[in-house]
Amino acid sequence: MKEFGIYGKKAEEYFRKGYNCSQSVVAAFAEDLGISESLALRMASGFGGGIGRMREVCGAFCGVTQVVSLYYANPDDPQDKSNIYTIVQELAPKFKAQSGGSLICRELLGLAEPEGNPQAEARTEAYYKKRPCPELVAEAADLVGAYIQQHPKAQ
Fold first, then answer.
1. How far is the C-alpha of 96 from the C-alpha of 75, rounded, in Å?
2. DSSP line for the chain
3. For a Cys staple, 19 with which of 1, 23, 51, 135, CB 3.0–4.6 Å?
4. Which pLDDT score, from 0 to 100, does residue 44 have?
5. Rounded mean pLDDT of the chain?
6. CB of 77 closer than 8 Å to CB of 83
7. What is the structure's pLDDT at 114?
8. What is the pLDDT of residue 155?
């Protein structure tokens, strides 16, 4: 079994409490980002299940993108988005390498197409056994945590 860092462990704990992939990653960083847990969970709630359970971009990677944005973005500079895009594009292939080669939720879950249902599944032991999501949120959180540690924000 893979050993996860502090952010990975926090993210997995949130996921096992029933939060979605994106919420789990963002909430793991709430304190460090200077936002409340409640705000982190609210702002990331629609990104789970591959954005609104449409099985598109993995919610864990959406969480990575939100953490990067909250940590590095300069709200006073509309052109700063290029810096954020650069970081996201740097992290995307690293996430793909860890996750099995994709950023797409349905591919990570082995689905031919989305289920077409917005209703979240009940979290049971069977659910956790058939999904890579607990590991993906932990890997995503550790990935962005390591990036931040290696690239501290300029003051």
1. 29
2. -----HHHHHHHHHHHTT--HHHHHHHHTHHHHT--HHHHHHHHGGGTTTTTTS--B-HHHHHHHHHHHHHH--TT-GGGHHHHHHHHHHHHHHHHHHHTS-SBHHHHTT-SS-----PPPP--HHHHHH-SHHHHHHHHHHHHHHHHHHSPPP-
3. 23
4. 98
5. 94
6. no
7. 84
8. 63
Residues 53-94: tens digit of each pLDDT: 999 999 999 999 999 999 999 999 998 999 999 999 999 999
Residue 96 CB-half CA count within 13 A: 12
Q: pLDDT for 18-59, tens place per residue?
A: 999 999 999 999 999 999 999 999 999 999 999 999 999 999
Tell me how far apart the alpha carbons of residues 148 and 155 are, in angstroms, rounded to a whole number.
14
Task: Say if residues 19 and 30 touch (Cβ distance below 8 Å).
Answer: no
CA 82, 87, 90, 94 torsion: positive or negative?
Answer: negative
Burial of 118 (0-12, 13-18, 19+ CB in 10 A): exposed
Q: How many beta carbons lie within 10 A of that of residue 11, not counting itself?
A: 33
